[in-house]
Amino acid sequence: MARCSYPGGVQLTEMSVVGIRTSITVFRRRAGGLKFVVVPTIHIGRPDYYRAIHERLKPCVAVVAEQYDGPSSTGYAYVAAMKLTRQRAGRDLVHQDIDYASLGVPIIFPDAVPGLEAGPNRELPRDTWLDVALLTPALAVDMALHGREWLTGRQLDIDDDSDVAMWPKFMHRKVMTERDELLIGALREIDGEFSAEDAEVAVVFGAAHMPAVVRELVAWGYRPAPGSRWLTAVDF
User: Fold this and answer.
1) What domain of life does the UniProt record list for this protein's source (predicted)?
2) Residue 221 belongs to a domain
3) Coil, strand or helix: which one is 129?
4) Which residue of 15, 19, 123, 205 has the lowest C-beta tally within 10 Å?
C-alpha cells in the first residue's frame, strides 16, 4: 500500500489476479457519538456485491450517496468487451443498483443535478452510446491480446493517500474536485449537527472519491474502527 496520511492508513479497494474487492470501514471518535460507515463502490460488480452493501446500510439512520448510480458508458464498454472476449469475470456483472428507497431513511445526494437520476429501467443514457461504440472494440482487442496480463496491468488499489486523477484532465475539476467538495460539505453539516448522536451514517460513493472523505474524517478527529469488512465486487 502507498504512503498513508496517518499511521496505519485505510485501504479502500484491492485488485489482484483473484478479483476486485472493496472495504466497508466504520469511523468513530474515541469519545463516542456519531459514526460514519464509509462504503467505497465500483459501478459494475456481482449482484451479491450490491445486495451485501444494501444489507449493511439497514442499521444506518441516513445515507449519503451519489445521485446517479446507473450504467456508465465506460462500465458498459468494459462489461461488453469482457463478454466479447469470454472473460469469466464478465458473465455475471451488473451495473450498480442499490435500492435506497427501501431503506426507509433519509437519503442525501450532495451532487444532485436535475436530469441525472438513473431511470427505473437502468438504461444507459442515449447520448453516451457513441462512447460505448468507440471504447468497446479497443478494450476487447486489449483483453484478447494480453490475456491475464490485462488484469494485472490495471492498478485499482486505492487507499486514503491515493490521488485519483481523471482523464482527460479538464474533466477532473468537474467530475472529481467539485463533487468531492459537495460531498465533504454535506458530511461536515451532518457532523456539526449530529456529532453527539449514537448512530451510524453511511457514505456510499465511488471509490475514487473516498480518499478525500477519509482524510477529512481523520482531520475532524475520527479514526477507523478495527475490522474493516471486505466485499468481492468482481471475481476473476
Assistant:
1) Bacteria
2) yes
3) helix
4) 123
